[in-house]
Amino acid sequence: MTDTNYRAVWDRRSADDLAALEAVDNSGSEAVARATGAHTADMVATAVDLGPDDAILELGCGAARIGRELVGRCGHWTGVDISPNMIKVAGRRLEGHDNVRLEVLERTSLSMIDSDSLDKAYSVAVLCHMDKEDLFLYLREIARTLKSGGLAYVETWNLADPVGWQRWMYEVNFWDRSDHSERKDVARNQFCVAEEFALYAERAGLDVLVVFRDSPWLQMVVGKDLDAARREQERNRLAEQRSKIAHTPLFGQLFLEAIRVIYGDTHPKQSLRRLDAMGDRPEVGLYRTLIEGLWEQDPDRYGPPPEE
Ligand SMILES: C[S@@+](CC[C@H](N)C(=O)[O-])C[C@H]1O[C@@H](n2cnc3c(N)ncnc32)[C@H](O)[C@@H]1O
After folding, report:
1. Which residues does UniProt assign to the signal peptide (predicted)?
2. pLDDT digits (tens, 9 = 90+) for 35-48
């Protein structure tokens, strides 16, 4: 029987610490999660212009892959998630920090967070795993809980990107092979085009500053109650810092290599060879770590991983 609610799916995927890490970034490895977490944390901090005193919220914080890397860079970090198991893992990974609040969500609402209380908010790899009604409700909640002048970073899958389309086709083909008398997986990957994603944000009451769209992900930075001068200032800042925020087409190609390995379409050895031909860029190193990690975790499937 297909799970019919978000919590059941994500609790099942996070029964222990390593399972939770696998669910958040496909790694199943503390070392890889720290590497991908640090990379994503830098991107988020730049997108929302994170300051040392900021109160920041992560919607769908999972195992605190990103939060663990941001908690020392802000005044207060709050992580909320639909899955009690994820929140337990996040708590263990954040032990020793006293500027942290963790909350289990009961429904698509941030009712435990006061209105106008947050300087910043973000959500990574979460809004793509829910129905559009829930995506919109959460954007409305971000609009409610941000202070005037606050900023948020949110993302979902980009259907209009060539790799985004290929990712969507994995979902289409999976459903095509599935039992159609069952409901679809509630946590399946869902996709938008940039105009649709921006429309939800605008109708939720947020000012859309930018939607980066050159990769399989739509990366949107929004603000609350920004006057024209501040909007222009933030747009200029985001344009200047684009290379630190926007995923590149190369990042999309690397991601495709990773999902080909995950879905069994290619052997990690072949993917790593293709990565070698992509040069020495930091994102290539990040995906090399991820793909090597996938190989190390499953020697029965792929054979013994290389020594080095
Ligand atoms: C792929 S993980 C990403 C976790 C984290 N943001 C990261 O990037 O490491 C998706 C997370 O979203 C949470 N989630 C899924 N559906 C949700 C919902 N409807 N409301 C709140 N959290 C949800 C899951 O429990 C899971 O922790």
Report:
1. none
2. 999 999 999 999 99
The count of other CB atoms within 10 Å of the CB of residue 119 is 22
Q: Is 67 in the pocket of ligand 1 (CB under 6 A)?
A: no
pLDDT tens digits, one per residue of 62-72: 999 999 999 99
Please tell me if the CB atom of residue 10 comes closer than 6 angstroms to any atom of ligand 1: yes
The Å distance, Cα 239 to ligand 1 centre, comes to 28
Residue to substitute in 12, 82, 136 for testing ligand 1 pocket (most ligand atoms within 8 angstroms of CB): 82
> Which residue ranges form the domains of the chain, and what is each CATH number?
6-247 (3.40.50.150), 255-300 (no CATH)
